[in-house]
């Protein structure tokens, strides 16, 4: 496997890890807390999910052949929760948008990484575009984790090594890292 093919596999793995991290964080809060805003000017987990879903579908649908900022996208509306935005629909949109991302990445090969794509009229290589989106989604997943941890309070269960658990974690031999983790 070439380094470039490995980059595609690694990117898919990292996108899956980000999705799982966010899903595990949101899984620790109630549906009502999903819509709550921690403070003035902040975003709820619901808004972040709505924005990320809109971004993913826009960026990844027909990734190699159309601009990543689709004409039909209304980015500003992604930061508004309306009466029609229910938990189930936002989660369904979240899941669907990840499916778009993973299906587009699954068909890429090493040669595709040097191809040009555009996002908002800016020309990028596929490799650059993937890196850009990984960074963007990591930023927002961090926000989801923060908001979820805030609302879960003392019921929060660590999504990584719990505080005070580093020594015990480091003592366990690591045989491999599963491809889907």
Radius of gyration: 18 Å
Order of strands across the main sheet? 1-2
Instruction: Please indicate the percent range of residues in DSSP E strands (runs of 2 or more).
Output: under 5%
The count of helical stretches stands at 6
Overall strand count? 2
**Would you identify the CATH architecture?**
Up-down Bundle
What share of residues is helical?
Answer: 40-55%
CATH superfamily: dinb family like domain
Integer count of domains: 1
The SSE string, one letter per element, is HHHHEEHH
Q: What's the overall geometry?
A: flat
Which structural traits does this protein have?
single chain; 181 residues; mainly alpha; Four Helix Bundle (Hemerythrin (Met), subunit A); two-stranded antiparallel sheet; flat
Describe the structure.
The protein is mainly alpha-helical. It has one domain: Four Helix Bundle (Hemerythrin (Met), subunit A), CATH 1.20.120.450. Helices cover 54% and strands 4% of the residues. The protein has six helices and two strands. It has helices at 3-26, 31-35, 45-60, 87-106, 126-152, 166-171; strands spanning 116-119, 122-125. Strands 1-2 form a two-stranded antiparallel sheet. β1 and β2 (122-125) form a beta hairpin. The two termini are 20 Å apart. The mean pLDDT is 93.
């Amino acid at each position: 496997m070439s380094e470039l093919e490995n980059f595609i596999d690694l990117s898919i793995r990292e996108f899956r890890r980000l999705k799982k991290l966010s899903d595990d964080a949101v899984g620790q809060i109630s549906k009502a807390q999903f819509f709550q805003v921690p403070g003035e000017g902040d975003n709820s987990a619901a808004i972040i999910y709505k924005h990320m879903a809109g971004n993913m579908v826009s960026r990844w649908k027909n990734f190699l052949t159309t601009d990543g900022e689709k004409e039909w996208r209304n980015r500003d509306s992604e930061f508004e929760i309306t009466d029609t935005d229910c938990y189930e629909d936002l989660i369904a949109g979240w899941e669907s948008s990840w499916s778009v991302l993973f299906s587009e990445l699954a068909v890429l090969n090493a040669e595709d990484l040097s191809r040009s794509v555009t996002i908002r009229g800016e020309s990028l290589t596929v490799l650059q575009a993937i890196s850009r989106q990984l960074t963007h989604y990591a930023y927002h997943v961090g926000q989801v984790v923060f908001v979820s941890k805030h609302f879960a309070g003392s019921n929060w269960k660590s999504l990584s090594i719990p505080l005070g658990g580093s020594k015990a974690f480091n003592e366990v031999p690591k045989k491999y890292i599963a491809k889907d983790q």
